[in-house]
Amino acid sequence: MVANRGPLAGLKVIELAHIMAGPVCGLMLADMGADVIKVEKVPGGDDSRRFVPPDIDGEPAAYLMMNRNKRGIAVDLKSAGGKAVLRRLLSTADVVIENYRRGTMERFGLGYETLKHDNPGLIYCEISGFGRTGPYAERGGFDLIAQGMSGLMSITGEAPGRPPVKVGAPITDITAGILGAMGVAAAYAHRLRTGEGQRVDTSLFEAGIVHTYWQSAIAFATGVSPGPMGSAHPLNAPYQAFRTADGWINIGAANQANWLRLLEVLEATDLAAEPRCAGNAQRMSHLGELTEALGRYFPRRTTADWLERLEAARVPAGPVLNVGEMHADPQTRARDMVVTVDHSRVGPVQTLGLPVKFSETAGGIVRGAPVLGQHTREVLGENGYDRAEIEKLIAEGAVVAA
User: Fold this and answer.
1) Would you say residue 323 has pLDDT above 70?
2) How far lies 392's CA from each of 75, 246, 309, 359, 401, in Å?
3) What are the structural domains of the chain?
């Protein structure tokens, strides 16, 4: 088995999750060293295996991204043998991650109360659309629905009155996975002190809500729900994108010192004496006029020219990159956020790296995503099944081995 020496090395995680939110949680734990065993359904495996195009030599790019660093087995949970296999795995696991609808695990005979009886220290992480309590607990969850109901789509877009726009990335899926991993780490710290496991419950809905901190603060204070502002900030100005001679640039000149330095770079120091620009409150009150005034200066030079001048003046600024440009950026590379990992079938594959760095327990990406059932024999052997028992399970269809 390939070793990952991250801070969670030795933690055994069973991932009963598909597509994105649950797999993000497993991915975060795996990148930090946990042994994450992904249990895929029979037939077909994770639904993201069918998210094509694109693919890399027949392997779906989406699946490769979300499941690198994990080992994979395939189990038919509708069969008695498959349920027995999973229950044995869970009896010695530290963590289980699941993102089924409420009641699914109970119907399999694998709900938390049952598993806790076998394994009192088990950390049981549930990621769902709306959480396991409340009037929406029975509903399924999708990122688009959660973005709309959490308020995110009401603050995303160019201006009020236009059609609603979602954040380009599936942000509630990804954030719910990160929140789940954070909850697992906290529950693990508690277990180390007490020996006690527990349930960890988060949702796409809550993952969307936490992204409204600034807008919720405004609504609580004023009773008015803020709307979309394009790239502008609801509390500081100027803090937004401007068109240049050849593209776009983001300017973060929100505090007074940076504002004055920006005016020097723009050669627009006369704006410093303008009462509507005197302080942040005045600039926010006249944001449209401010944007129009500054917008006349930036097209005079290229993005690269402005960035050089702004960096020299210590004004926070940055280009608006596309995803490919971000991959090639020297800071992305220096932080190991694009790495190459070997896949058992297609060879070297590029993927994204671990976004948290540790001084003593590095973590990282050490294996490619599994093909369906790649580690079935290996994992069952580690959990007490002999060769004959494994082959019998395969023959009867309770498990699938690559």
Assistant:
1) yes
2) 13, 65, 70, 46, 12
3) 12-211+338-400 (3.40.50.10540), 248-319 (3.30.1540.10)
